Structure formats: structure tokens, C-alpha cells
Amino acid sequence: MDSADNIDRLVEIEHQAADIIADAEKKASQSLLETKSAVESMRNQKLVEERKKLEAEHVSFLKSLEAQSAKEISDYRATLNSIPLNTEALKTAIQNIIRAGE
Q1: pLDDT by residue (tens digit) across 24-79?
Q2: How many independent structural domains does the chain possess?
Q3: What Cα–Cα distance (Å) separates residue 56 from each residue in 42, 53, 60?
Q4: What does the buried/exposed string (b/e) look like for 76-95 if buried means 16 or more CB atoms within 10 Å of the residue's CB?
Q5: Parent domain of 95
Q6: What share of the chain is helix, strand, coil (3-state, %, to 5)?
Q7: 86: helix, strand or coil
Q8: What is the spatial distance between Cα 25 and Cα 23, in angstroms, rounded to a whole number?
């Protein structure tokens, strides 16, 4: 009966070992899933932060373009306004257009 008891004890130890291995595999799998989830969450957070940064840079760039365009238009208008009007040349040009249409 000693050998039967020993075999029963070995079978019981084998079952305990199988349970321990299964539990370890379950914990490792759960840990892997949690790690993957955490990594994906961090990646998504980085993407959101980068997108916000790029959108802010884009808005700033558009504002600078608008300011630059407004200045160039203002400067061009000032240049045009500073050119004296040659009324004699304008009068001659209008008369030539009228004559050409007759």
C-alpha cells in the first residue's frame, strides 16, 4: 500500500503542478493584455497630443499668412496711392479708346 499511496501522492503533486502552471499562464496572459492595453492607451494619448500640437501650429501659420497678406496688400495700396495720377495721359488714352470705337 505504500507504493499506491506514493503513486496517489505523485498524482496529486502532478495535479497541483498543472494547476500552478495553468494559473501562471493565466496571470501571464492577463499581464500581457494589460500591458498591450496600456501601450495602446499611451500611443493614442501621444497621437492626440501630437495632433493638438500640429493643429495649433497650423492655426498659428495661417494667422501669420493672413497678417503677411494684409501687410502686403496695404503696402501695395500705399504704393499705388503714392503714384501721381497723370491726367493728361489718362485723357489722351480715353480719347483714343473713344475714337477707336467710332
Answers
A1: 999 999 999 999 999 999 999 999 999 999 999 999 999 999 999 999 999 999 99
A2: 1
A3: 21, 5, 6
A4: eeeeeeeeeeeeeeeeeeee
A5: 2-101
A6: 95, 0, 5
A7: coil
A8: 5
